[in-house]
Amino acid sequence: MQILRKSNWEGFKKITKMKRKEIINKVKESGLKGRSGSNFLTGLKWELIGKGTRYLICNADEGEPGTFKDKFILENNPQLMIEGIAIASYAMDIHSAFIYLRGEYSYLKPKLEKIIKQSEIYLKKIKLNIEIVPGAGSYLCGEETAILESIEGNRPIVRRKPPYPSESGLNSNPTCINNVETLANIPLIFLGEWDNNLQLFSLSGDLKKPGIYEIELGTKLEHIISCGKPKKELKAVYFGGSGGCLPYEKFKNLRVDEKTISGKGAVLGARSLIAVGKDRNIVDISKTISEFFVHESCGYCTPCREGNFRVLELLDKIKDRKARIIDVKLLEKLAYHISDTSYCALGVSSTTHLKCALKYFKDEFRV
After folding, report:
1. Which of 34, 149, 248, 333 is at a distance of 20 to 30 A from 314, taking alpha carbons?
2. Does residue 228 share a domain with residue 84?
3. Where on the phi/psi map is residue 229: left (φ > 0), alpha (ψ -120 to 50), or beta?
4. Which residue in 106, 170, 109, 172 sits closest to 144, CA to CA?
């Protein structure tokens, strides 16, 4: 796998002989986009950072259901991520970086601290200090501005944008936030023979071999799923908890990339694919995902806080065969109302799964 390649700080050694602008231009030209699902050009993000004291945050708060690619990197090749942090910091003239580590990944902290200590010979050259900050235990913490609030010691809720973190982030200073996979790819760009189309997919669900697979973007859905070896005939594929779902048979020949998937009403996001067998009930799955969003809502805005709770009530009625036609219609209205009016991305994406389920599996919601 490309992502398991050992750089041994060779990428870092190359960039220290380059001007900062040259490094940023090289990353821009590579076409690397944020691998958290944002798909924003990484080099452009670096270029847009404001003047003054700057910070870099590595987002290792991987909370999307069905997503475990960053964990794979942290367990198997964390040195590459540390080197990526160093290159990014040097390019943006940053001297203070943070790894915001998901609470469930706390067992990896000693290992990361050891690697940081072993890397001091390189970090001291650019006067860079890397600190590991434990996550606050909420799905919302994966949002970039909620991370800022958490590191500052506040309740992790989403900030209004603008201003963006690149202008006013941590302690009101310019801040760049990149996720684990994005930063781990940085050294590889400077080593050469790096393929931007090779990306990590988290495969889970009704599969014999769930796991992380490095697959070229644009590969057919059927081929990607076949890597995990389905246990049974499949009904649907979910793109994490917030990315929605597509019927497998209808779209198994679909080429998987952001534009194509979004064109069908779903969202590729962080490339987590959950295979769902034909014996599964879509209403049950919708209920499980809704329970997750009800639990993870910060309660700040009414559409997300009250709307998802009401969605869960309606799904319970449908499951128990106590619903009426008017309840299904209300469910559909709520799904769009919540996504259109919620304050942050959590609320906006909390009913994507439901919109897709009602679009492609309406028969299973019949009363």
Report:
1. 248
2. no
3. left
4. 170
Q: Pick the last residue of a domain from 146, 170, 191.
A: 191
The 10s digit of each residue's pLDDT in 227-251 is 999 999 999 999 999 999 999 999 9
Quote the distance between the C-alpha of residue 290 and its chain's center: 19
Euclidean distance between CA atoms 64 and 142, whole angstroms: 9
Is residue 32 over pLDDT 90? yes
The pLDDT assigned to 118 comes to: 97
Edge-to-edge strand ranges of the sheet holding 198-205: 211-216, 198-205, 272-277, 234-238, 245-247
- Three-state SS string over 54-89 comes to CEEEEEECCCCCCCCHHHHHHHHCHHHHHHHHHHHH
Number of domains in the chain: 3
**Which domain range does residue 115 map to?**
2-191
* 145 close to 25: Cβ distance less than 8 angstroms: no
Q: Are residues 7 and 85 in contact, defined by beta-carbon separation less than 8 angstroms?
A: no
Single out the residue in 174, 191, 208 at which a domain terminates: 191
Question: Are the beta carbons of 72 and 188 closer than 8 angstroms?
Answer: no
Cα separation, 40 vs 108, whole angstroms: 28
181's tokens: 């996979």
Question: How far is CA 308 from each of CA 82, 96, 150, rounded to the nearest angstrom?
Answer: 39, 39, 25
